[in-house]
Amino acid sequence: MGNFDMKVAQFIDIFLNKGGYEKVILGLQNTLTIAISGLVIGIIIGTLIATVRVIPKYKLLPRVLNGICSFYVGLFRGTPIVVQ
User: Fold this and answer.
1) Are the beta carbons of 9 and 16 closer than 8 angstroms?
2) pTM > 0.90: yes or no
3) What's residue 24's pLDDT?
4) Phi, psi at residue 11, to the nearest 5°?
5) Is 72 left (phi over 0), alpha (psi -120 to 50) or beta?
6) Is residue 62 classed exposed, middle or buried when 0-12, 13-18 and 19+ CB atoms within 10 A define those classes?
7) Please, what sign has the CA dihedral across residues 13, 15, 20, 21?
């Protein structure tokens, strides 16, 4: 078990004494920024698509927009999550 104690001591040295926690905090900040940005963009796109799909289709423009939205939704439904 002497090797494990050496690894723990090396981890503490790098993480606390040499500022390794700053990189972890920076990575967390980047992750949260990307996640929140994606959430906001997804809410905006989802709201627009839902609005277009619900409005009456009496004229040409709503029918064209509905076709575009149907294609977009079908495209993302048909692709695996890993690909997205």
Assistant:
1) no
2) no
3) 86
4) -60, -45
5) alpha
6) middle
7) negative
Residue 5 gets which letter from DSSP? H
37-50 confidence digits (pLDDT tens): 999 999 999 999 99
Nearby residues of 41 by Cβ (< 8 Å), 6 or more positions away? none
d(CA 29, CA 37): 12
Residue 65 near residue 52 (C-beta atoms within 8 A): yes
The structure tokens listed for 66 are 């509905």
Q: Please tell me the distance from the alpha carbon of residue 24 to that of residue 28, in angstroms, as a whole number.
A: 6
